[in-house]
Amino acid sequence: MPEDGTFDDRVRDRIGDVNSLVCIGLDPAVAHLPPHMGRSVESAVTFCQAVIEATLPFAAAYKPNLGFFVALGRAGFNALWAVRHSIPRHIPVILDCKTNDLGETAAAYARGWFDEFDFDAITVNPYMGEDAVAPYLTDPRKGVLILCKTSNPGSGDFQDIRDGAGVSLSLRVADQCRTWHERYPASVGLVVGATYPEQLADVRRRCPEQLILLPGIGAQGGAVAESLQAGLDRAGGGLLCSASRSIIYAGSGLDYDTAAGNAARLLRDQINASRAPAPANA
Amino acid sequence: MPEDGTFDDRVRDRIGDVNSLVCIGLDPAVAHLPPHMGRSVESAVTFCQAVIEATLPFAAAYKPNLGFFVALGRAGFNALWAVRHSIPRHIPVILDCKTNDLGETAAAYARGWFDEFDFDAITVNPYMGEDAVAPYLTDPRKGVLILCKTSNPGSGDFQDIRDGAGVSLSLRVADQCRTWHERYPASVGLVVGATYPEQLADVRRRCPEQLILLPGIGAQGGAVAESLQAGLDRAGGGLLCSASRSIIYAGSGLDYDTAAGNAARLLRDQINASRAPAPANA
Question: CB of B77 within 8 Å of any CB in chain A?
């Protein structure tokens, strides 16, 4: 697989190669590590590496979550670096950092996450507006996944506010994401929680061609079949279903990695059973 | 000064002690360091430490910006740690990270920024809603500054969207910030750009008692007198005027630290000339 395609191309290729829409969230909370591993920074890294190795055949992408690396303190960046570089280069890696800032600061984030850490995509919060998103959109090989409708109960506090024409903030964001995807070199996708299938369907109608990252499957209770029906694109893809705890903490014994691999395979199969028509390369 | 008061108390005390509303933004972009220093991670840290030492007498607070530490790559967290711990413990330090995430992830960020890195306050993006903000609000000694109306031209893309009653998103956020300040143990303040003095005045009317962090003075062109009139609270305080590049890059020679100190003193004096009535402890 060429490494110089767009982020969207690379995700599509990987989905085809492994016939999987599963994106595995890497949330290494030391309190949740298998008891025999202890609670050190090193064990968090070892844990992630073992989970990555066991889940590789079923992973369309990986999504390390910055928060859990911040919680590791000043060693957190070394851990993040080690985890990122444990994932083979041809598999898309999305840093879930929900970054947002302006001008030179945004450019500094882009340089850090994309060039220094070599992430393929990042999540970005749109609240600050287009000129705060544009600095992440200059590299055609990279992806930016914009928070649109998040999976939490409180997401409606602001995202459901309707303008004078009755359009919610999250759909205003979706409309902008479509424009940005057309206007800038990078691939622009959206983050929509699996817990809101109706709003997911609305977003898919407005953004038929864009990648949607769907958190909230599994531990957060999003129903798989309903989410897929609402979120798949016309070709039966365009969707990354992100699950973290339900996969990486599937087991807590010595065989925790095998348990994670089994959970990833099960989710892949459960998702594929709801995908119709099956993709041509399945 | 006691270190166990609320964040608001500590800021108010420090403003009184140095008779200054200046918050110094630490944005160590290696490309902007004085040429004689080179462009290493170590020089970024040395630069910040020298600027801190020279500006201490005029600083109500410091605000390191995470983006510039991310740009340093995997050594960025060690640099951030070193910079934070170069600032005396009694001076409030705000990490400008614009964090936003849910549940366990938000709690992980809180643990990392507040407990591991020992920051006194962080900036938080409100897009995800109250249940995504609450995990940062549990510690009465800490502060959370919520993005309300940001200083950039594109801030209106979403923040100016008006609901059916004609209230803008940024003012809906301001109303929530007031509620959160009353309801949670931590101090809740707001971030409002100096570039929008009318909206700053609206926010101050809705949140008369809360701390406002005002970026955009200096390099971004916000007018000092107008901003102060709009943003000061009834006691002539409650405002941190944040300036970064105009202070830390005031000079580029061997005496860059002296130049930074002079720029900070000048800004303090310029701000104080617009403060009326003078605070009782000035």
Answer: yes
Q: How many angstroms away from the CA of A25 is the closest CA of chain B?
A: 12
Report CB contact under 8 Å: B161, A157. Answer: no
pTM: 0.96
Q: Which of residues 10-49 of B touch A (CB under 8 A)?
A: 27, 29
Beta strands A239-243 and A121-124 are unpaired
80-119 of B, contacting A, C-beta below 8 A: 80-81, 96, 98-106, 108-109, 111-113, 116-117
Q: Which value does ipTM take for this structure?
A: 0.96
- A238-272 burial, b if ≥16 CB within 10 A, otherwise e? bbbbbbbbbbbbbbeeeebbebbbbbbbebbebbb
| Domain segments of chain B as ranges | 7-273
pLDDT tens for each residue of A179-192: 999 999 999 999 99
For residue B204, count CB atoms less than 10 angstroms from its CB and return exposed for 0-12, middle for 13-18, buried for 19 or more. buried
User: What is the pairing mode between strands B143-149 and B121-124?
Assistant: parallel
Residue A78, chain B, CB below 8 Å: the answer is: yes
CB contact under 8 A, A109 and B67: yes
Give the residue from chain A lying closest to B79, CA to CA.
A74
- Asked if A76's CB is within 8 angstroms of B77's CB, the reply is yes
Contact A158, B169 (CB under 8 A): yes
pLDDT, tens digit, 9 for 90 and up, residues B251-271: 999 999 999 999 999 999 999
Strand order in the sheet with A187-192: A61-64, A22-26, A239-243, A212-215, A187-192, A143-149, A121-124, A94-99
Cα A33 to Cα A252: distance, rounded to the nearest angstrom? 7
What is the token pair recorded at A258? 């095998």
Q: How far is A96 from chain B (nearest CA, A)?
A: 9
Q: How far apart are CA A243 and CA A266, in angstroms?
A: 12
Chain A contacts of B80, Cβ < 8 Å? Answer: 74
Q: Which of A63, A98, A142, A149 is catalytic?
A: A98
CATH architecture, range A7-273: Alpha-Beta Barrel (3.20)
Q: Which two tokens stand for residue B71?
A: 């740009």
* CB contact residues (below 8 A), chain B span 164-183, against chain A: 164, 169, 172-173, 176
Low-confidence ranges of chain A (pLDDT < 70): 1-3, 218-222, 276-282
Query: Alpha-carbon distance B129 to A85, whole Å?
Result: 33
Q: Residue B197, preceding bond cis, omega within 30 degrees?
A: no
Residue/partner pairs of B115-119 with CB below 8 Å, 24 or more apart: B116/A70, B116/A71, B116/A72, B116/A73, B116/A74, B117/A73, B117/A74, B117/B80, B117/B81, B117/B84, B118/B84, B118/B85, B119/B84, B119/B93, B119/B94, B119/B95
B67: helix, strand or coil: helix
Q: Which residue has the tokens 């957060």?
A: A220
